[in-house]
Amino acid sequence: MKLNELLPTYTPLEKPSNFDYKFTLFTPVYNRADTIHRVFDSLEKQTFKDFEFLIINDGSKDNSHEVIQELINKSNLNIRYINNEVNRHKMACIIQGVELANGEFFLPLDSDDECVENALEIFLERYNSIPKEKLSNISGVTCLCVDQNGNLVDDKFKVDPLYSTSFENRLNELSLSEKWGFIKTDILRGIYVNPEVYSKGYIPEGILWNLIAKHKYQTMYTNDVLRIYYLDTGNRISNQDHAKDAFGMAVFSLCILNWFYKDYFWKNPKVFLIRVYSLIRAAIFLDFKKQDYLNAIESKGIKFLVNLCWPFKRLFLKIIG
């Protein structure tokens, strides 16, 4: 399998899907028996009720399955529960969830977090406020988070609402800290992710958001604070492990380098130099050869940089410890 064949692709749907709900609240679960109740409690309190709750247990090794079943039996929510026997990691669960979703808007909520009781109501109000001429090019709405102590996880946007993309935020050096938002389900259904990337460690969700950006969809960013993001969870996927995350980081770096280099390199070269560094750092832990990476890179300039830096990749290992 060639590395560039592992990059996701997007093809718009020929006709829109029919949906039963406005939102699909989607929660992938892995070893979250002690925290999954937070999601149930949050959704039970929602002031806006036109949503389904889709849960995928991703081969948990603890008693998450039994806890989820117990919570479902006590709940009045519209719930669909999938219990995967084999752990395939979060990206596979997201794609599985998108295929199953019956909601127009797809809203992931991690299994250790909460949201405020009027979160869905505010999301819909913000979406409905978008000018009609913009709607076809809007992928969704994204808001801010606080941690479990009530502290903002990120700075507020200087412009509210801000119409932008994940890549534009990176290019303009806006903070990329944790945020929360929904995406139109039909846009996500146009994305193809090669199953070869599944079960190979953490694959950044940013791959999906940057692919959407590549195809000129914008997001409405607001300063509404709608999610409580717990920072004290032991096996949170944002706890970085360079070896375990290497495959996903290599794919993510190739996506940024191939999708945006031609149009944006000279607007902020640092963005692309960081991705070259990340790619070579990831290569330390992977079995691919240098030529595999060069064959996957479209730009001659980026190929040159990778060639130039490759002899020093062991130095990167010393830098990151």
TrEMBL record:
Keywords: Transferase. One of its GO terms (molecular function) is transferase activity. InterPro entries: Glyco_trans_2-like, Glycosyltransf_2, Nucleotide-diphossugar_trans. Transmembrane segments: none annotated. Residues 25-129 form the Glycosyltransferase 2-like domain. SUPFAM superfamilies: Nucleotide-diphospho-sugar transferases. Coiled coil: none annotated. The keyword Nuclease does not apply. CDD domains: Glyco_tranf_GTA_type. PANTHER family: GLYCOSYLTRANSFERASE, GLYCOSYLTRANSFERASE TAGX-RELATED. This is Glycosyltransferase involved in cell wall biosynthesis. It comes from Xanthomarina spongicola. The lineage of its organism: Bacteria, Pseudomonadati, Bacteroidota, Flavobacteriia, Flavobacteriales.
